[in-house]
Amino acid sequence: MIKSELIQKISEENPHLYQRDVERIINTVFGEIGGALARGDRVELRGFGAFSVKERPARTGRNPRTGEPVFVNAKRVPFFKTGKELRERLNDNGDDD
Amino acid sequence: MGEKTLTRADLSDAVHQNVGLSRTESADLVKSILDHITTSLVDGETVKLSSFGTFMVRSKGGRIGRNPKTGEEVPITPRRVLVFRPSHVLKDVINDGAGGSRGE
What we know:
Largest sheet of chain B: 3 strands, antiparallel
Number of strands of chain B: 6
Number of strands of chain A: 5
Radius of gyration of chain B: 19 Å
Order of helices and strands of chain A: HHEEEEEH
Number of helices of chain B: 3
Distance between the termini of chain B: 21 Å
Oligomer: heterodimer
Largest sheet of chain A: 3 strands, antiparallel
């Protein structure tokens, strides 16, 4: 599923909303999550999962082709941990535990 | 680093403020968005949200694990896990600080 299909589905369920409003709603939700992460905040969505930011220290990497050392700056990377309920739903085939 | 934790309520509030829908309807829409994503993932579909990232389901084979505390061997059954790959846009937003305006 891509974003336009999600917009389509939500629009069909909410005929009183313009499609461009649905688009704005979806962009607001994910923009808000991105903004929170940019501030270093966490986003915890019960039943779905939690987004956080992990710090990666600077390191000396290597160009895999030439073997030449390359300095890699410290950076922050977004991280998602699947929520318990979703993790269980992904494995709802009876063979639990 | 900030220390706050945003929740569904904060997302609903943002929708309420930005789009002008009632708080109840905003909360319902946030739930509906997450529910649709969940359903697709449970069906084994990949969910691609441009400028945010991609959620995909990966199947992992069974293996023998070990309880790190007791050293006891524990079988780990095959299972499906969810992986999130952030888009370049999201990575850039997070490294450029708030707002994500570039070229400054």
